[in-house]
Each structure stands twice: as C-alpha cells, then as structure tokens.
Amino acid sequence: MVEKVLLQKSMTNNNLDIEFQEAVDRVNAHTEPFPADFLLRLYAYYKKATNDYGQPSSKKPIINAFKTNALFQIKDITQEEAKQTYIDLVNTYFLYRK
Fold first, then answer.
1. Is the whole-model pTM more than 0.85?
2. What domains, with CATH codes, occur in the chain?
3. Which residue in 16, 56, 90, 92 is a FRET match for 1, CA 20 to 30 A apart?
C-alpha cells in the first residue's frame, strides 16, 4: 500500500514538473513585455520552484531589492506549491490578456 502511494505521488510530481516546464517555455516564447509586478511574481516562484537561491544579479540595486522582497514574500511555501502557483499565474495571464 505504501509503495502504491509513493508511486502515485511520484507520478503526480512528474506531471507537475512537466506542466511547470511547459509554463516556463510558454513564458520564454512570449514576445510581448509582461507587466513588472507579474514578472516579479514569476521570478520569485521560479526561483523557489527550481531551488535557485542565488542572489539577484541586476546592475540596478533597486531591482535587486524588489527581487529580494518578492523572494522573501514566498519563503514559507514548498517547491511544489511554487511550481503550481507559477503554472496558475501563467495560465491565468494568458487566459485574460488582451
């Protein structure tokens, strides 16, 4: 029974990883500019989802401050929650954009 639950969770995580990568690809393929607040949210959830905790590397200190703040706001969520939220943000954006 435990093995079955672990297998189902693994399959669910695999599906989440696939959906997450599709959302990332969709964002990267988009050629129009995104709103700044949306980009900050995507940045934070992407960093959390990929366990990339490197320092923001913009040449402008104010941008680094905004990025750091965005990361701080989501510090208590899991990697899976970050992936799902990223997916939801992307899907909602493309559903309601002009």
1. no
2. 2-96 (1.20.80.10)
3. 16
